[in-house]
Amino acid sequence: MQSTIQAPRLTLVPMNDDHLEHEIALDARPEVMRFLGNGVARERAEVEKHHNGRLKSARDGLGYWTGFVGTQFVGWWLLAPAGNDERGQAEIGYRLSPDFWRQGFASEGAKALLAYGFDELSLTQIFAETMTINEGSRAVLSRLGMSHLRTRDVGQISSIPESEQGNVDYVITKKEWEKLRSAP
Ligand SMILES: CC(C)(COP(=O)(O)OP(=O)(O)OC[C@H]1O[C@@H](n2cnc3c(N)ncnc32)[C@H](O)[C@@H]1OP(=O)(O)O)[C@@H](O)C(=O)NCCC(=O)NCCS
After folding, report:
1. pLDDT value of residue 123
2. What does 62-96 look like in DSSP terms, one character per residue?
3. Mean pLDDT over the full length of the chain
4. Where do the domains of the chain lie, and which CATH numbers do they carry?
């Protein structure tokens, strides 16, 4: 079972059907979807499908969380089960409302989820992936202390401009996390 997680400003609540309208409003904003899927805003039916998939993916304490400040929806985060390949056992990610960008919220929620994954779930390595050109997402991953593992899919073209620059994988181990946390 996923826990509710309290960060300094954010409360991360395990995602449930009450959050669907927030997810629909989020994906309706083109600037949010710029580096995701086909790079365009999503219709309600498509978001409903994704929402159901998110809920179904939950297991062993992993899944999706919706973040609030008080009663205000900020966005959602994932610490989701992965294939336990060389990149790790769980993938971390985030999608926030532009109303809350550049205020440290993505980092705050992700940091709380890294702590949860390593301390509560005893994971040993967590990874993230994003488009090479998604500077905002990459800045969050660097801020979390995650390292660039590789760039892949270079030359593959999608409907997103400059997608041919490919995707990047970032990783962090439990040991690296503990070292960072104990640093002054
Ligand atoms: C990417 C995203 C999650 C960033 O969220 P955020 O809450 O603004 O990030 P933070 O405020 O925690 O910023 C962390 C760092 O990233 C930097 N940053 C954030 N957005 C940035 C951007 N667009 N370009 C460059 N740097 C950026 C911040 O300045 C900060 O750097 P600092 O530690 O040196 O001050 C947010 O823009 C978003 O939800 N985008 C749409 C969805 C998306 O692309 N998700 C990622 C999919 S892989």
Report:
1. 96
2. BEEEEEEETTEEEEEEEEEEEEEETTEEEEEEEEE
3. 97
4. 5-182 (3.40.630.30)
User: For 65-87, what is the mean pLDDT?
Assistant: 95
The pTM of this model reads: 0.97
Nearest CA to ligand 1 atom 12: 104
Nearest CA to ligand 1 atom 5: 106
Q: Which of 170, 169, 167 is nearest to 146 (CA)?
A: 170
Residues with C-beta less than 6 Å from any ligand 1 atom:
32, 35-36, 93-96, 101-107, 130, 134-137, 139-140, 143
Per residue in 83-126, pLDDT (tens digit) is: 878 898 999 999 999 999 999 999 999 999 999 999 999 999 99
* Nearest alpha-carbon partner for 9 in 109, 102, 136, 110: 109
Protein residue whose Cα sits closest to atom 7 of ligand 1 = 106
